[in-house]
Amino acid sequence: MHTSCINIKKLRILPLTIVLLGAILSFACENDMKDIDRMANMKKEEAVDISKHVTVIYSDSARVKAELTAPEMRVYHDTTGRNQGDYEFKKGVKIIFFDEFAKENQRITSNYAKQYAESGLIEFRNNVVLTMENGSIVKTEELFYDEKNAKYYNTLPISIEFTDGRGHMQGTSFTSDANFNNVEFQGSTGLYYMNSNQQFPGFGN
Fold first, then answer.
1. pLDDT tens digits, residue range 61-79?
2. Burial class (CB in 10 A: 0-12, 13-18, 19+), 35
3. Residue 24 covered by a domain
4. I need a labelling partner for 140 at 20 to 30 A (CA). Which of 23, 42, 53, 130 fits?
């Protein structure tokens, strides 16, 4: 009888031991998964270089073409190639462009910007203001600059206040050369004044 009782106790203890062991292993696995997730997030962070209070000078053949300033700049090193070499400015940016005589001829400010390395496209968003040398002002919430083709465009409402006699124009979107000499508005409204020396912009639908 005594031996039988011991055997019963053993049969009852063994399942409890297995359950406890399983719980310990489960807890250990859960911690391991948390560590893996934490390490994965660390690797993601390590793929981005973050610089504060940045000033970048763009030059070509010893001539300064532009100066960029920003509170923060992120440079991506995504191993998948999706963001490889992209620059992002989450806290805003200011870019000043200079002519061949080192004189400012254009200025852009926005609350967000990103430069895509592969396409050469620069994206500006949120409170975008472009000021030209003659004082003309472009305002919109979205602006793209195609560096390869030297042109601006967007897909959101835009307004341009020309100070060279061309008037004040608004549109649902637009395209333009880099110097805003040839501007094409879509869904345009406003007044436009011409003289014999000016090129009339195209209007799309």
1. 888 989 999 999 999 886 5
2. exposed
3. no
4. 53
Whole-structure pTM value: 0.68
What CATH number should be reported for the domain holding residue 153? Answer: 2.60.450.10
Q: What is the pLDDT of residues 2-28, one digit of tens each?
A: 444 434 344 444 454 444 444 444 544
User: Per residue, what are the HEC states of 36-96?
Assistant: HHHHHHHHHHHCEEEEEEEEEEEEECCEEEEEEEEEEEEEECCCCCCCCCCEEECCCEEEE
Contacts of 185 (CB under 8 A, 6+ apart): 158, 169, 170, 171, 173, 174, 201, 203, 204
The structural domain count of the chain equals 1
Is residue 58, in this structure, part of any structural domain at all? no
Whether residue 74 contacts residue 88, with contact meaning beta carbons closer than 8 Å, is answered with yes
